[in-house]
Every structure is written in C-alpha cells, then in structure tokens.
Design goal:
Keywords: Extracellular matrix, Hydrolase, Repeat, Secreted, Signal. The chain is built from five helices and 39 strands. It is mainly β.
C-alpha cells in the first residue's frame, strides 16, 4: 500500500509541474491542453466499448411482507447505483452471497452512512426531508470482490427500484500510459506495467534527456535530484507527442538555469490516522550543490503549486458510538430505557459505521437500562362493600377506592395505574326474590248485628321485591281472612230463627254476609232458645252467604315490615306497597294520599362499642402519625392502633351520615 501511495504522490507532483500559469487544463493523459477524459469504463480517451453497463428497473408486484430479492451484483462490478424510484415505507437491504448482512439485515434498520462490504465502500442514503420525494439508494465505486444480493424489505406497494452497474468486457481497451509516466505507476486506480523494468525505463529517460538537451545544462532524474522538477520540453518525446500538445514555452532567463525548485519535505499531517492531508514544501536550490538559495534565484512562475496529499491513510481504531438514552418506558415505578450503540471508525474526516467485530477489543456499552422517575402511587380500598341495592334478585353494591401517594395523600386517579384499579362497583345477586302474603286492612263492620259475627280482609300471595323475608315461598301458612266479632246478645223467636243478614264483610268487591240461625221456642212475649237438636227435623236456613255490593276499584296492598338495617344508632326498615285492582292486577288508580309508608326509622338507640384490649397505642406521639395520614400503612396502623381506629370510626360515621 505504501508503494502505491508513493507512486500516486509522484504522479500528483508531475501533474503540478505540467500546470501552466495560463490556466490551461491537463487531460487524463497528463498533457497540458489535452481534452482526453476517462470514459465510463475507466479508460483514458476510451469510447465506452471496453465495458458493459447493466441496468434495469425492478417493478414486480409483491404481496407478502418481508425480504424480496431485487438484483444480483456480480463480482468485479463498478459504478454501482441502486435507487428507489420514489420515497416509500419500504427499505433496501444488502447481503453477501455468503449470508453476511451488510445493510439493513435481520430486520434491523441501519442509519444512513457508509458501510464496508464486498471489497468496496457503500454509501447508504435515506432522504428524510418531509418535502423530498427521493427514495433510498446504495452507491459504490467498486470493484466488488464477491457476489452481492440486493433485497427490498416490502411493506407497501413497490414503487420500482432502478439498478445499474458496470462490468469490464473481454474487448476492454487497455489504458494508454503517458510517455513520461514510469511503468508501475497508478493510472485511474490501475497499476500499469510495461515490458521493461523500472530501472531500465529511468536510465533510458535520462539518456534521452541528455541527447535532446545538446550542450545545455543537463536536466535529468538522478538519485540525488529525484525530487527536483526541471522544465520539461514538449519535443522531448517527439515520437509519441500528441497533435494537440501546446508549443514549447519561451526559454526562461539564464539565471534560472543554475537554480530550480525542489521539494524539501512536507507539512505535518492534519490527522494521526484515518486519512489526513499534507502539502509538499518547495524551496529554491542550486542545481549542482542542492544548497538552498533565496527564492528570487528561481523563476517564480515555475514554482509548483503545492497540492494536497493524503497521509496516515490507515483507519483510526474503531470505537463505540453511544446514542442518547430514550425516555423511560414508565412515568413512575421501574421501567426500561434504550439507546443505540454502533461500532464506528473515522476515515477522511467522516465517521463510518462498520461491522461490530471491529470493536471487539472494547467492552460494548449497555443498550438497555432500568429507570425510575418516581415511586408510583397505589390504590387503596377505604370502605367495605355497601349492602346490595335490592333485597332479592340482582342489584349493585359499592365501596370507596382512592389513589393514595407514597406519603398518604389522596391524589388524582391518573397518578395510579388505571389497569390495576380495584372495582368500586359490582353486581350482587341476592338470590331469587321470595313470595309474600299481601293483606288488606280488616273490615270495620262485624257480620252480625248482634251476637257472634266476623270481620274479614283480603289475602293474596305475590312476589316481593323489597323484603328479604320470608326467603321461601308463601307456603301453607295463609293468614286468616276472618276474625270473630260480637255486637252483644240478640233476642229472637221460636223454631229456626234466622236473623237478618249482616252487612257485607267488605265495602266493595266480593265478601260474605252472616246471620244467626237458632232453634227457639216462641212464647207469648218471649222466645226460648233451645238446643239445635230440637230443630233437627227442620231444614236449617243458611247462616252465611256471599255478597257483592260494588266493584272496589284499586286499593293499596302492603307487605310486612323488613328487618331493621342497623341494630343500633338509627336504621330503617322497608316494606313494599302496591296498588291492585279487583282482579288483583297492578293498577295506578289508587289515591296517592292514602298510600301507606314504605320506609320508617328503627332502632334509634346508641351502639355500645366493643373494647379491644389488644388495640393500644405503643407510642406517646401517635397523634403525629394521625396528622401525617400515616394510618394507611400497616406498620403505623398496628403501632398506633387506638388512635388510628378512632380516626377510622369518625370517618366511617361521617361517610354513613352522608
């Protein structure tokens, strides 16, 4: 590599010598005024026939997601250009035939930059401007030293991928070496050799110079003057001189023949590694003694222009490029954060991404880490479940759930993890609703005007949606529909004596009437009551009959009172009240002002608290624990049991009063 670099340096110096102050350009053949250029095959003055350009567009319609091969790049390819037709959500990928990923492999998307692979350096571009429509691209000068495959990571319809590369053909034109270039020097990246050794070429060049100069001061490349730059005459190589070579320049003043410009070292390299730059230092020296002389002794117009030369071209040691940490995955509690760590090398003042094995001499930094911004708040259940909203069937019950910070304060629910929030409302099933006897009030009238009679009421079995008692069905214990009554003794007559029918047992609807039937003996002014057997030979008149005065219409029916909700300190009990028509169906025709109460207070006496001998304060300053709201933690709840219990009872009473 060092020899190639030295030859390339000499070539640059010779080019500088041939430059003229007049501003005329130098062709690729290094002749001043030449218009020859390098063709696409890399041949100076070529006609593009020494190679083959392979190009095309990959437009296949892809259906499945993932990697799809676009084109194969053969070994020896140069001028490689792989470009998407326009921007898309797809990605280009590059892999060697041996299976090694170079760019965007293994479902990992690399950053734009330079990547080494296949013996050349690929430039990966991904325009990120919002307004840009350009797609991704791979560019490389080549040549490649192995077969490479280009892939597309398909995610949306293929916009088309244009590919182009150059391969050398069998009829390639050999590069023409300029006459003054020594055999073995680099020509457009190629090493050119001729059928003679370097030493022979140098010796012949020196002899030609001696013959052409004819008595003038000798201008030759000797071992001592290899770094001097004599004036070159265009007729020195007359047998191979091109037609368009410029005429010889006028002879410089005689005083310049004794001195010429010589390179005496170079400037310090701009970098210690990774391809820096330096410039040759030219001084005016005597031709024979090579002693340095004032610059006025040399022709200033012939002083070579220092050209930049590469130096310290070996790559700098690879290093780990560490990206910024991402945000913590959680706003509180233990989370994760990530960062990108790439192996990079600096070359030509550019940082290039290289394969990770280049950094194997260094310990790779961590790419993931735990993080915690703050301690999370937690959910606390403040009250037990309330009673079910219904005594039977399916209802709902609730409880108080709060988000509490790590210092015991109630904070907004958003401070806690909503996914872990305990339910504060749920359904409750009290079992099938029981059936209860529904009763009317007793009738006000007795069935007999005198003597024994009865009062009646209506009884019906219906489903109860309020009371939880009884839990079974109505059963066989049907409440009595009649109760005895007595309006005093009656006076009668002999025989079967039937008294008058009593009033109907109810004021409306179907009821019964009673009458007294007795066996009597009629005297002149009185009746003597006899034993009924005395009248057994007579047909006894009926003593009871049904009656129906008028339709009742709707009436209020109610159940028995339920159990009290609390055993002390004031509770309530309920019953269900319904409006029923004559046929015992629900009605809305009852007078609302006559509706019986459905709820009433009960057990107003104070509760006698149970004293827990084990619940005591272990510290004298438990009032501070209460003030700091630390009773939510089990440790303080135990250490200051009495104080925390009193506060809890007061809060429970306050919630209950609401």
């Amino acid at each position: 590599m060092f020899v190639s670099y030295l030859i390339l340096t000499l070539l640059h110096v010779q080019t500088a010598v041939l430059a003229r102050p007049g501003g005329e350009s130098i062709g690729c053949d290094d002749y001043l005024g030449s218009d020859k250029v390098v063709d696409k095959c890399g041949v100076c003055g070529g006609d593009n026939t020494g190679c083959q350009v392979v190009s095309g567009v990959f437009k296949h319609a892809l259906t499945s997601l993932g990697y799809h091969r676009v084109v194969e790049i053969p070994e020896g390819a140069t001028k490689i250009n792989i470009t998407e037709m326009y921007k898309s959500n797809n990605y280009l990928a590059l892999r060697s035939r041996s299976g090694r990923s170079i760019i965007n492999g293994n479902w990992a998307i690399d950053r734009p930059g330079k990547y080494e692979g296949g013996g050349t350096m690929f430039t990966y571009k991904r325009p990120n401007e919002i307004s840009s429509t350009a797609g991704e691209s791979f560019l490389a000068e080549g040549p490649t030293n192995e077969i490479l495959d280009v892939y597309m990571i398909h995610q949306q319809p293929n916009p088309g991928v244009h590919y182009e590369y150059v391969i050398m053909g069998t009829n390639a034109i050999s590069p023409q070496v300029p006459p003054h270039r020594r055999p073995g020097e680099s020509f457009n990246g190629q090493m050119v050799t001729e059928g003679r050794s370097q030493e022979e070429g140098e010796e012949k060049g020196r002899n030609e110079e001696k013959e052409d100069l004819r008595g003038e001061a000798p201008e030759m490349f000797t071992s001592e003057s290899a770094q001097t730059f004599p004036v070159r005459h265009p007729d020195r190589f007359s047998p191979r001189r091109p037609d368009n070579l410029v005429p010889p320049a006028p002879q410089p003043p005689r005083r310049s023949r004794d001195h010429n410009w010589k390179q005496l070292g170079t400037t310090e390299c701009s970098t210690t590694c990774g391809k820096g730059s330096q410039y040759p230092i030219f001084r005016c020296v005597h031709r024979s003694t090579h002693e340095e002389a004032p610059e006025s002794y040399c022709d200033s117009s012939m002083k070579p222009t220092p050209e930049e030369e590469p130096c310290n071209i070996f790559p700098c040691p690879a290093f780990w490029d560490i990206g910024e940490w991402s945000e913590c995955s959680k706003t509180c509690g233990l989370g994760m954060q990530h960062r990108q760590v790439l192996c990079r090398q600096v070359y030509a003042n550019r940082s290039l991404t290289v394969q990770p094995y280049r950094c194997q001499h260094l310990e790779k930094p961590e790419t993931t880490s735990t993080c915690q911004l703050k301690i999370c708040s937690e959910w606390q259940i403040r009250t037990d479940w309330t009673s079910c909203s219904v005594p039977c069937g399916v209802g709902q019950r609730t409880r108080d759930v709060k988000c509490v910070s790590n210092i015991g304060d109630v904070v907004d629910d958003e401070e806690c993890n909503m996914k872990l929030r305990p339910n504060d409302i749920e359904n409750c099933d009290m079992g099938p609703c029981a059936k209860s006897w529904f009763l009317t009030e007793w009738s006000e009238r007795c069935s007999a005007e005198c003597g024994a009679g009865v009062r009646t009421r209506s009884v019906v079995c219906m489903t109860n949606h309020v009371s939880s008692l009884p839990l079974e069905g109505c059963g066989n214990n049907r409440p009595a529909e009649a109760t005895p009554c007595d309006n005093g003794p009656c006076t009668g007559k002999v025989e079967w004596f039937a008294g008058s029918w009593s009033q109907c047992s109810i004021e409306c609807g179907s009821g019964t009437q009673q009458r007294e039937v007795i066996c009597v003996r009629k005297n002149a002014d009185t009746f003597e009551v006899l034993d009924p057997s005395e009248c057994s030979f007579l047909e006894k008149p009926p003593s009871q009959q049904s009656c129906h005065l008028k339709p009742c219409g709707a009436k209020w029916f109610s159940t028995e009172w339920s159990m009290c909700s609390k055993s002390c300190q004031g509770g309530f009990r309920v019953r269900e009240v319904r409006c029923l028509s004559d046929d015992m169906t629900l009605s809305n025709l009852c007078d609302p002002q006559l509706k019986p109460e459905e709820r009433e207070s009960c057990n107003p006496q104070d509760c006698v608290p149970e004293v827990d001998e084990n619940c005591k304060d272990k510290y004298y300053n438990c009032n501070v624990v209460v003030q700091a709201r630390l009773c939510v933690y089990n440790y303080y709840k135990t250490a200051c049991c009495a104080s925390c219990t009193r506060v809890a009872n007061r809060q429970t009473g306050f919630l209950g009063s609401r």
